[in-house]
């Protein structure tokens, strides 16, 4: 943090008055269910984005990221807050600032912000939701605006959907906003009801494994999956009185699956519906401390994302499937949007070194470069960091 404060002083010649942190996230299970009215089960992690800021006396806004030093200071002002491709990474904070300014007339001065993230880029650990909510928290706090947390979360999702153009669900912003140390959240994305569940797996720990392959074209594929689900739903709605795939049980689906009339759409819907059931079941078995069945659900989730939803690819499959073979691993699956990025494994605490060694060997042999591993604490949501 000292570094970031120093960086702010070097660039803007003043002391920042506020420091904040927004986490990234993993998702235990419940993938590609959040825009289908289903359940998700994410947890915030101690990797995330730090930011420091200070109000200005004019209407200028200046943003600087230590992660994109060559991009330099991104400068605009309160009256010009449109998306601009030249502003690269800064469009995420800019979108948030725009919607805040539209809602709160008291934001009548500019500000300077410096950020630094330690979430690996393109790792599917939600660096974008992290910077959106970090910006929202910094700006509302600088202006003493008491904004409801859920409204801030929804605003982050709106930035993603309308400003950036990715039709994502609410999972990432929700967990970055509502995360709690040592807990995951079971969230019903239909009602937004949620429960905190301790991330206590007995002798087992979650390992995060990075393919180190950057996501490419993920946004267009993501939007394509979403519309495939909508088309499958429209077919099923001819027979079932439902608003989302999340309301359909597996038994109902099996009865009407062939009415969808298209194999690809049928498989997309089967993933969304079966994944939703697995997520509810994962919650039940965790309550009962049945980590073995929990692990089996992780494996089944990966298989469904690979075969039915087709969002994995060689790297994620090699990583998750190699981990599933390791003695002491109860289950492994991709996490987040897919296509590349990270997978998670539930591994016995004495077998972590083994997991890393065996998976690195198998992955490097098939893919040609090594994966990375992280062991991080489950964290609180976005927050101010008080000066010590
Ligand atoms: C991305 C989106 C989320 C969710 C996941 C897949 O992270 O931002 O809303 O859809 O993919 O589960």
UniProtKB/TrEMBL annotation:
SUPFAM superfamilies: GHMP Kinase, C-terminal domain, Ribosomal protein S5 domain 2-like
InterPro entries, A to Z: Galactokinase (IPR000705), Galactokinase_bac (IPR022963), Galactokinase_CS (IPR019741), GalKase_N (IPR019539), GHMP_kinase_C_dom (IPR013750), GHMP_kinase_C_sf (IPR036554), GHMP_kinase_N_dom (IPR006204), Mevalonate/galactokinase (IPR006206)
Record Pfam families: GalKase_gal_bdg, GHMP_kinases_C, GHMP_kinases_N
UniProt keyword annotation of Hydrolase present: no
Site (Transition state stabilizer): 25
Its EC number(s): 2.7.1.6
Domain Galactokinase N-terminal: 6-53
Keywords: ATP-binding, Carbohydrate metabolism, Cytoplasm, Galactose metabolism, Kinase, Magnesium, Metal-binding, Nucleotide-binding, Transferase
Domain of life: Bacteria
Top EC class for this record: transferase
Sites where the protein binds substrate: 31-34, 222
GO cellular component entries: cytosol
Active site: 172
Primary localisation category: cytoplasm
Listed pathway(s): Carbohydrate metabolism; galactose metabolism
UniProt KW Zinc-finger keyword: no
Residues of the GHMP kinase N-terminal domain: 91-179
Domain GHMP kinase C-terminal, first and last residues per copy: 284-363
GO BP terms: galactose metabolic process
Residues the entry annotates as binding Mg(2+): 128, 160
Catalytic activity: alpha-D-galactose + ATP = alpha-D-galactose 1-phosphate + ADP + H(+)
One of the record's GO molecular function terms: ATP binding
PANTHER family from the UniProt entry: GALACTOKINASE-RELATED, MEVALONATE KINASE/GALACTOKINASE
Family: Belongs to the GHMP kinase family. GalK subfamily.
Function: Catalyzes the transfer of the gamma-phosphate of ATP to D-galactose to form alpha-D-galactose-1-phosphate (Gal-1-P).
Protein name: Galactokinase
Protein encoded by which gene: galK
């Amino acid at each position: 943090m000292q570094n970031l404060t120093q960086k702010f002083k070097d660039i803007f010649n003043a002391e920042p008055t506020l420091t904040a942190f927004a986490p990234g996230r993993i998702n235990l299970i419940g993938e590609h269910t959040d825009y289908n009215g289903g359940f998700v089960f994410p947890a915030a992690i101690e990797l995330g984005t730090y930011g420091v800021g200070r109000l200005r006396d004019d209407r200028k806004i200046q943003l600087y990221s230590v992660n994109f030093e060559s991009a330099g200071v991104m400068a605009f002002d309160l009256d010009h807050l449109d998306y601009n491709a030249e502003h690269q990474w800064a469009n995420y904070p800019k979108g948030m600032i725009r919607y805040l300014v539209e809602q709160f007339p008291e934001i009548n001065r500019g500000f300077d912000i410096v950020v630094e993230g330690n979430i690996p880029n393109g790792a599917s650990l939600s660096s974008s939701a992290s910077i959106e909510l970090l910006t929202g928290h910094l700006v509302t706090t600088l202006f003493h605006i008491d904004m409801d947390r859920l409204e801030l979360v929804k605003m982050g999702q709106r930035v993603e959907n309308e400003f950036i153009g990715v039709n994502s669900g609410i999972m990432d912003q929700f967990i970055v906003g509502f995360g709690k140390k040592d807990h995951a959240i079971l969230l019903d994305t239909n009602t937004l009801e949620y429960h905190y569940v301790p991330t206590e797996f007995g002798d087992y720990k979650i390992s995060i494994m990075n393919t180190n392959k950057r996501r490419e074209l993920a946004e267009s594929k993501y939007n394509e999956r979403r519309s495939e689900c909508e088309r499958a739903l429209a077919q099923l709605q001819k027979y079932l009185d439902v608003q989302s795939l999340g309301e359909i049980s597996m038994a109902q689906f099996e009865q009407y699956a062939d009415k969808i009339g298209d194999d690809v759409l049928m498989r997309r819907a089967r993933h969304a519906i079966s994944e939703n059931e697995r997520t509810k079941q994962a919650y039940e078995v965790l309550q009962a401390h049945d980590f073995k069945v929990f692990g089996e659900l992780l494996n089944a989730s990966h298989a469904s994302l690979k075969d039915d939803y087709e969002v994995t690819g060689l790297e994620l499959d090699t990583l998750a499937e190699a981990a599933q073979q390791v003695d002491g691993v109860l289950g492994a699956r991709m996490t987040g949007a897919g296509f590349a990025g990270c997978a998670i494994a539930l591994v016995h605490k004495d077998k972590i070194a083994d997991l890393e060694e065996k998976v690195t060997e198998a992955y490097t042999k098939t893919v040609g470069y090594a994966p990375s591993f992280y062991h991080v604490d489950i964290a609180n949501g976005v927050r101010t960091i008080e000066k010590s």
